[in-house]
Predict the 3D structure of the following.
Amino acid sequence: MTLCRRDAVLFGVNPHPQQLGDLGERLAERWVIRSGWQVIARQFRIGHRDIDLIAKRANTIAFIEVKTRRRTDFGGPIAAVSAQKRRHLTHAAAIWTDRHGEPGWEYRFDVIGVLVGGGLIRIAHVENAFTAWEGRPRR
């Protein structure tokens, strides 16, 4: 993976968390595109809820949450997707689907974990990381 100058700068300093998150989203987007997906939306926001990436391949839409970390001292990036975040993603995805969905499309929730540190980048892509049913509050 080729990094641009602004990405490389982040390896030498302790960036603001937003900068690290932005870097992770750019790297995840490149990963998704190289995996044959077309990114159709970035940072889709509904109020305080957001979906980092929405990608399409054939008749499948993936709502993708990207988590970026420098270290795994408190768990890896994928483990950082809490039950509350899953509920927020599910809600935002339902709104996106109501507005833009098409009959016959399949929908799924993916999580991409980006670990940046020591001059290395590690990307883990968990397809179908959870279902919309898991994201709903329990009654």
User: Anything to note?
Assistant: The two ends are 45 Å apart (CA to CA). The beta strands are 38-46, 49-57, 60-69, 106-117, 120-130.
